[in-house]
Each structure stands twice: as structure tokens, then as C-alpha cells.
Write a structure and sequence with these properties.
Number of helices of chain A: 10
Largest interface: A-B, 43 and 43 residues
Shape of chain A: elongated
Order of helices and strands of chain A: HHHEEEEEEEEEEEEEHHHHHHH
Structural class of chain A: alpha/beta
Distance between the termini of chain A: 140 Å
Number of helices of chain B: 2
Helix content of chain B: 10-25%
Largest sheet of chain B: 21 strands, mixed
Oligomer: heterodimer
Shape of chain B: globular
Distance between the termini of chain B: 82 Å
Radius of gyration of chain B: 24 Å
Radius of gyration of chain A: 41 Å
Strand content of chain A: 5-15%
Number of strands of chain B: 21
Chain lengths: ~375, ~300
Amino acid sequence: MSTPIRSLVLGLLAITCAGALASAQTPVRTAASSDSLHVWLDSLRNDPNGAHVDEQSLHLGHQTVAAGQHLTGDIVAVRGNLDVEGTVDGDAVAILGDVILHPGSKVGGDAVAIGGHVRNDGGTVGGEMRSVSAFSTAPAAAAPPVSTARATWRLLSLALGWFVVLAVLGLLTLLLTRSNLDTVAERIRADFTRAFLVGLLGEFALLPALVLSLVVLAITVVGIVLIPFAIIGFFLAAAGLLALGFLAMSYVSGESIMERGAASAPVRRAPAGYVLLLGLSLYFALWVVGALFTWAGVLGALIRLAAAAVTWAAVTVGFGAALLSRGGTRAHAPTPGPLAPPPEQDYSWETPTPVTGVAAAPRRTPVANPKDL
Amino acid sequence: MPRMVHHVVGLAAAAALCAPTARAQTWRTVDASRQRQSADSVLHVRVEYGAGEVSLAADSTPLLYDVRLRYDAERYAPTRHFDPAARTLTIGLDREGMSRLARARREFGVSDAERGNGTPNRLALGLAPNLPLDLMLNLGAVDADLDLSHLWLDRLVLRSGASDVKLAFGTANPRRLALLEILGGAASIRVSQLGNANAQHVRVRTGAASVDLDFSGAWAGDMTVDLATALGDATVRIPPNVGVRIVMRKLLGDLGSSDLHFTKRDGAYESDNWPDAPHKLTIDARTVLGDLTVRRTTP
């Protein structure tokens, strides 16, 4: 085994052992490092499995309540065992130690061991005997704040992850159901405002529509069986329409960018995949910028808010277009406009017809008396 | 020098690999018990348990109760409270609120497996024998093994969301069980030796859960069962010395029996030994899609 690999294995072993030794005592260790009785007291008081004890009752190290001794309050041994041979009217607590109740001992309150055990060898406890592996509430106080670099990295990875997922989904859509994507995109181009309004309405109607469907199914006895399938089907359909709509919107956005570029310098018509990725990049660029500005505090939050607003608008328009086109299966029929006047006919090429002298209708003549005939 | 660099690099790499694991030590255990007092008269027990394993049995030590709980502190918060005045023990294991959820989301780099989700939460509850008990169990999605042997039951309500529940009356209940109610959503509920329950009336309601009711045991009197199922099947096991009369209302379900012979009389199905059986079981059954199967147990 080469030296680096051996070092890696040894390191792994060492850290695994350290982790195993740490076990569930992480919060206790955290508190211990502060080495302050106040930390122990707060943890003990805030923990639902702890105890409400007086500050004066805390003592570092092993403690003993001797036989015949009578304590009127509580007693807490921190980082040591608590041997009770006499009487404690209040709570008897050990933190990182055991509470040992010797024969004849009496505890009026609770006997509590945090990070240890309560061992009853013949004592009497008026309250509860509790053995708790570690404080439950300490991690909240001890949780380290997330660093800016880590937060930036998380937001970046989230944005890039979504970009990759949607890019793959978009390319698959282009490959397999190109016509649906084109139809939805055509809808967006043809009627952007209507698509947005329909999308908005659709988003609001999603939940009521699901509830209504379930109610209808529940009314019929046989329909109850279909409810789980209906829920899954509904969510799949909604997610599909949202994704298709957003991809179509990205495609249209990509096209728009390409056209602007082409206006200044004519280029060849780009492949559809390239256009789609360009459009997607436009939206995710906002998220990436927002992530990169995490250090800027409010400014970063505002950028992310703007990214969310833009993305939501795009999703809404796309969703509306997908709804209007029934998932890209119904092509857009252009609305008929006002009738254009018929084109003026040019008769110049025809041979002029003499009008003068040509009888347009038979001339009326007086009818003779039939008797004269 | 190069060897030292190798060691440092190795340790750094190991630390990087182990960092999420070291952060994932979130399992907690709580053992809580209370000594029995001479003045103890009745104990009310309320259990609200969301997910994991639950076991319940009579405790052999002179304790009023003995709770042993193991849970994931990152996702669940235990609640345990004893009200000495009302003689009520409340035990719960609920999902944590939003603050903890938010903290967990901050740490989304740690996978579920690293958090120790492979090991379920566990609650082991021991209760004092020979003490009247009022027991109410609300179980979410759990595997429950409830052995009620040697317990004195005055009242038992079991509500199960999607739990696999095994409920056993191993010994005869010396107290009259005033209320025995079993409500099941999904999964399965199996009750054995219901004859020992000393209940006059049993109420069973299930949605998609299958229910298996075994009425063997030492019968103290006649019993009626109000059984309603929607999608799940119900199986009723009748000992030889018990006569059974079934009033069945069904939509698409059916009544089946391979080893009992029934005679239809006054709209009800009566077993052959109904007129002269020492103990009688009357079942009022309503099913929608599930079947009701009646079987005779061997003595």
C-alpha cells in the first residue's frame, strides 16, 4: 500500500474512532468546552428532559450527600457522579455522571442524569428518575452560523443543479416531443398577455381543482380507490405543464436574444438546442448573480428576489401557454382580422368593349291589340 | 518531509470525507420511570407516537411506569409529562417545529442515511401490573407490539394511522373493560385473545386497514362487536364454545366462512351452536369493499 493511501486509511480509521467515541454526546461536549456553569444551567433548564434547579446548587466534580445529611434544595454535580446516601428535598442531578441512590436515601424531586444513568440501589424518589443521553436543546445554541462562502456555494450549486436538470429535460423534450414545445412557444409569441393571465389563473386554480377532483371521486364509492392515483396523476400533469411551459418560454427568450444579435450581424439559424440553452442560461444567470452577491447582504437578497420574480413570470406565462395549447397539442388559430378591401382590378389588358350603340335590353314597343292579329 | 505531507494530506482528505458523518450524531435516549406510591388508584396513559417502533407490556419492577425512548433529535421531539393530580402520563414523539426544520435544511448536505434514518425511533413502555389503567394510544406509522397481559384495563382506545399493530390480551383482564375501541386507517391490526379482554362491547372502525380479531381466551360474558370497514378485509376468529350471530350490511364486500355453518334467520347469520353456546358474540358488520371472513379456532 502506497504512503498516501495508507495515510488516508489511517486517517479515516482515526476519525471514525473519534466519531464513535463522540457518539451522542456532541452537545454535551460543546457545552463543556465553554466550561461555564451558566451554560450547563441554561441547558438543564431549557431541556424538556432537564430540571429547573437553582444556580447555587451547581457544583463541579463528584458530589456526595452523606447519610444523615438533609439538603432542603436541589443538588447538581457537573462532570461527576452524585452519590445520595441522605435526603434531598429537591432534585438530584448529575451532568456527565451517574446519580447513585444508596439504600435509605430519599429524593423528594426528580433524580436526573444527563449523559449518565440513575442507579437506584434502594433509595426512594418522589418524582421521576430520568437517564438522558444528552441535552436536546443545546445544538440549537451551539449550531455554528453558516459562513458566507458556504452559503454562496450552496446557492450556486442549487442554481447549477436546477440548470442541469432543466437543460437535460429540455433537450429530451426537443428530441422526443418537439412539436409540443413548438406549439407552446408559438402560443407565447402569439398571445403573451393572455398566456400570462391564464397561467396566473391556472396557478391559483391548481389546489381547488385537486380538492374538487378528490371530492368528486370520494362521492362515488368506486372512485375512492382511484384517489391515490388521481393525486399522483394530478401532480405529474401539473409539474409536466409547468416544466413544458418554462422550457417553451426559455426557447422563446433564446430566440429573442438570437434575433437581436442577428440584427447587427447576420448569422446562420442556430440549432434549437442551442437556442433553448441560451434562454435557460438567461434565467439562471440571474440566480447565479444572486448567489455570487450573497456577501452583499440586502443587495444579494434583492437580486435573488428579482431572479425569483422573473422566473415566476416566465413560469406563469409558459404555464398559461401550455394550458391554452392543451400541453402543446392544439395549435394556435390566428384570430381573423377586419376584411381587407378587394384589390383594385386592372382591366387595361382587356379589349375595350364599345358600349355606345349596343342595346343593353330590348326596347319596349307598344303591344298590338290581339284582336288586330 | 514528503512523508509528513502525505500524512497531512491523508488526514485532511479523511476529515473532509468524515465531516458530514461526525455531524450526524443526533440519536438520543431518554429513560424515565416513577416509583409506585401506596396511594396509586388509577393511571391514565396517553401515547401520541408518530413513527418508529412501539412496545408496551406490564413491568416486572415496582414502578408506576417505565419509559424507554430512543429518537432522532434532528427530526423528532419527545414529550413526556406526568400530572400527579390527574394521575395522567402523557408520552409523545412529534416531528420538530419549523425552527429545527430550518436548521435541518441548512444542513442539506447531510443525507438521510448519514442522519441514521436506517434505525427507527423506539418507544418501550412498561406499566404497573395490578393497577387500573385507562389507555389511549394514537399511533401514526409505527410497528407496534402491545402485550396487555397482566394489566388491569378499564378503558382502551387504539387509533392507528398507518401502523402494523399486534395487540394481545395474554391473560384475563380482572376489570370490566368499559370501552374497547379500535380505529385503523391503513396497514394492519391484529388482536389476539380478545376473550380475555372482559369487554362487553367492542367497536372497530377501519379505512384501508385489514383487521384480524381473535376471540379466544377466557370469556367473562357475552360480547357485541360493532365492525365497520371501508376498503380493508376483516377476519374474525371464533373459539368452538362461542356462538356467533352476524348482521351484515355490505356494498361490494362479502361474508365468507370455510369452517362454520350459518343459518340465516331474521336477516342475520347464526352459527349452528348459537342457541346453546355458553358465550355469545353478536357482530354488527358494515363493509364497503372489504370482505368479512369468519373462522373457527381450534381448541
